[in-house]
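Reviewer comment 2.1 asked that we show a complete input and output for one of the modelled complexes. We chose the zinc ion case, as it is the one discussed in the main text.
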Amino acid sequence: MRLFRSIPLITLFAFAALAQKDAPKAKNIKPGFNLFSKDQDVQMGREYASQVEQQMAVIKDEQINAFVRNIGERLAKSSLADKYPYTFKVVQEKSINAFALPGGPTFTHTGLITAADTEAQIAGVLAHEISHVALRHGTNQASKANLMQLPAVLGGAMLGNGGITGTLAQLGIGLGANSLIMKFSRNAESDADLLGVRIMSEAGYNPIGMAQFFEKLQAESGKSSRVQEFFASHPNPDNRVKKVQAEILLLPARQYQNDTADITRVKALIQGMPELPKPKPQPGQGQGQPQGGQGGQQGGVQPGGNPSNPSAARPSRGLREFQSRAVSFGYPDNWQVMGDQNAQEVMIASPSGIFANGAIGYGVIAGLHQSRNRPNLQNDTAELLRAFQQRDQGLRPGASKAFRLPSGSNAIATRLQGQSPFQNTNEAAVLVSVEHPAGLFYMLLIAPESDLGNAQPAFDQMIDSIRIPR
Ligand code: ZN
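Response of the prediction step:
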């Protein structure tokens, strides 16, 4: 089954410019729509930070740490930083990047420090990161994309002992390669730039440092892979440098201090550090390196399919519970839930069931299909089948039969055949569609035909466990 990512482009909020007649217009920048509380931002950030600290090489050298911490704390004092409990750590990483987690933990790569010419340039990036925190971009993004699942999670009904992050990881929302918590829209990037400029100015850093650094990164981005990661997690807004320069013109004129610390000395300290062996990413945990844009495509899970061996991707018989407002069902406890950005649909599989090109060879796709007209199980199923055939041209529907789930809901099972990404076998799939107040709930169960005997018992268990709340 070839998966195509759907791209939700719903902008739920628009910013109004300040309604002052004569003054030049400064944009009113505020946090957007959010289902999380500020305390939940802080709690989640702490939980993710401890994961980051296990996965990345946080450096111990107090001179380097103090250099970055002093810049960060000076910026965080700005009222615009909104009093989150900011922390500023440095990780030994050659790539030019920095990132902030919801609620305040920030991490600066050593590569960013060595690439900067002045303290103000580093302050520019940190002020931009602080702005992502203050504007709550991570949880705003997650809120917009996961309307189906989040209210139940945040209401606490599902909070297990894994904390917020553990629960979100179950839903496929994590610190992965395409993490919603870490990768922002161009609008969000632009807002973080503008607020960052204001924060720098308040803290006494010359905000031109931010524009200079972006210019430098842009110039280098064609030549160096060290920079690409920065733009992968911070998509470059149009006219970035010009917008920053225009924002600076709106600020009151003031005297800026020159660099207070010896950046040359800190850069030398970094360059003298011994190289680290690269920590291995942990496949299958839903939490890779927390930078966006590289490697795995499926919500942080590294695809690990081996075309000649489906056995690692098989479902276990033990079940774990998937629960949202719209549906609950059991899924094999050795599989993981991976949310697409559009969480109307989730994919559940072992990393070994997914291939690097996005194909799923062994696993389940589950989601809600909204009826165009009045919900009608047969019509809606036919419509859904056409949609799946559009996603995967090789898919051929076979026999179907109506049945009733143990929970009492009416359902239709339709057999499908297709091309498996595993070698020497066809793909066998069953689409189960279930009546639902919103239209229908569907579960597409996919296995290589050669391994269907091993999949069938777990698939039957999953189907039998589907429950639609009434
Ligand atoms: Zn950014």
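The chain has two domains: 38-271, 310-464. We note this here for comparison with the apo prediction described in Section 3.2.
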